[in-house]
Amino acid sequence: MQITIDSKKVKELSSYEMNLMNKGRIINFGKDTIEDWKKDYPLNSEVIFVKNKNKIVSFLVLRPIKIHYQKTNYNIYGICSVISFEKGRNYGRILISATISFLQEKKKSALGFTNKTAFFNKAGLGTEKGFIKRFVYVNPKNKEKIFDDDGDGIFYNSKDNFIQKILSTKSIVEIPIIHW
Description:
Blueprint: E1 3-9, H1 15-29, H2 37-40, E2 46-52, E3 55-69, E4 72-84, H3 91-106, E5 110-114, H4 117-123, E6 126-128, E7 135-138, E8 145-147, E9 152-156, H5 162-167, E10 173-175
Parallel strand pairs: 4-5, 7-10
Antiparallel strand pairs: 1-2, 2-3, 3-4, 5-9, 6-9, 7-8
Helix pairs in contact: 3-4
């Protein structure tokens, strides 16, 4: 194996990379999950790739998100689209390790939601069962609150201690994006 890690902003993605990412989404999440990466995500979102012999074998997206919680503004990353093209080869574990290193360097917390908590815990992220129930999307137009009750939390807690602050209370967290 000749493993390399590459990261780039969504605005720098090639057509080939975006098409490959969508193929991964279709395989893992279904045909209705295709993204227009440069329209559906902020252009400064980070994509982390694991490559073997220069071939993309795994990737994820870190979407910048601003959250106001308990009178404090937090700039975190939303963890999304975590995909490995070949299971059982440690590419996912390598991806999570590279992501943690990236987050440590940027001094940013990150949060995602999944039903595959055991993998992420083994790979080094923090996890919390049913964590998604603590978050609510508030539609800015009509103030409708939309809750999701299907998902555990995966996270990296940085020096801002954002995740620990949430875990230490029972307060609901309003989020600006319905799904990331």
